[in-house]
Amino acid sequence: MCSVEINRAGDDGDRLDMSLRGKLVRGEVKAVMERMLREIHSSSNLKHVTVNISSLEWIDTAGVALLVLFCQRIRAMGGTFRLVKPNEKVLKVFKLAQVEGFLSIEDGNDRA
Amino acid sequence: MTEPDRELIRVRGLNSFYGRKQVLRDLSFSVEANRIFVIMGMSGCGKSTLLKHLVGLKPSPPGSIYIEGKDISGWNHAQWNNYWLRIGILFQNGALFNSMTVAQNIALPLMVHTNLPKEIIEIMVEMKLHMVGLSGTGALMPSQLSGGMRKRAGLARALSMDPEILFVDEPSSGLDPITAAGLDELLLSLKETFGMTLVVVTHELESAFRIGDQMVVMDQGRIIAYGTPEEIRQMNDPRVQQFLSRRPDEEHRDYDSYISRLCKVKRR
Ligand SMILES: Nc1ncnc2c1ncn2[C@@H]1O[C@H](COP(=O)(O)OP(=O)(O)OP(=O)(O)O)[C@@H](O)[C@H]1O
Ligand SMILES: [Mg+2]
Questions:
Q1: CB distance B150 to B94 below 8 Å
Q2: How many contacts (CB atoms, under 8 Å) link A and B?
Q3: Which end of chain A is more exposed for a tag (fewer CB within 10 A), N or C?
């Protein structure tokens, strides 16, 4: 299972904080993707998106691909994307796929 | 992810034949989860045949191969399909579909077996190509790749479904030493990162000892050594020592039968 929690914040809702919980794996990706994309498409003035993954236990390469896609879409809309607090196992997968730079991963202690 | 130290594959007294010719003799060993198991031996000793049994491409006699404790000789269609979805295979010849681009080859299992959207699959294909050092070659046809590149594309395809068990036949054949070392690193990180179990056929000694947790050395269809790299190195068996030191063996080439064959040719 992978659940998505969403919080809108900031002046006139220009910030979106999401958190992912559970396991973001192949069988979950389609549903999670639809949920995440619906959220960004329903807002007109979105500027900053932060995805907190501190409660994400595990991810496979389909899950990584989803985060890459999501990040691309937000940047294409002119927004900023941050991915914060991956656990050690998840971070290893990002490193193997060599996407940790692209995804702007932060440990998130200072800003989250 | 699978927990380590668990016995994933158990082989007991496996014999194998092509017609009446016996090519595997009484093989027994175990592959533990989250380990790299290396199969070594001279050309023709039966390594690829053993791999065919382990992946179900050649039927095995009852009681000779168990996967997670279950005898595979009794598996039905559904059990095989379930197993095939959990494993990745790199064949010795790479075995790509020649009528498809490299990217389509890698995407194929994902298109057939998952509900993943096309955009996600495209990103996954790029990722797998990057892992094997083939970024940017997705649009090429297999015929446009070198032998070593085709091998790596085959590995990318074997990885497309994030397999729990990866079977690879001679992954570094046709690769220069630097690329081959990079491939060893990749195999090690797959084990480390995904908890993958790997069964690797190779005759590159250096690579075998670098990546192997457990290994077997085969000779003419038999296992002549089985253990950790350290244990194998310390074995006194002359055939093992000879394999490790790579001395060409006069006897092995069977000159007597060669000469008698030559004599037969003359007589005709
Ligand atoms: N389809 C087949 N039909 C008949 N004999 C076969 C077949 N495939 C392999 N053999 C024979 O079985 C023996 C083992 O072959 P196998 O391909 O398993 O060796 P190998 O150890 O993988 O060799 P290499 O290192 O050259 O790949 C060889 O004697 C080979 O000639
Ligand atoms: Mg072979």
A1: yes
A2: 51
A3: N
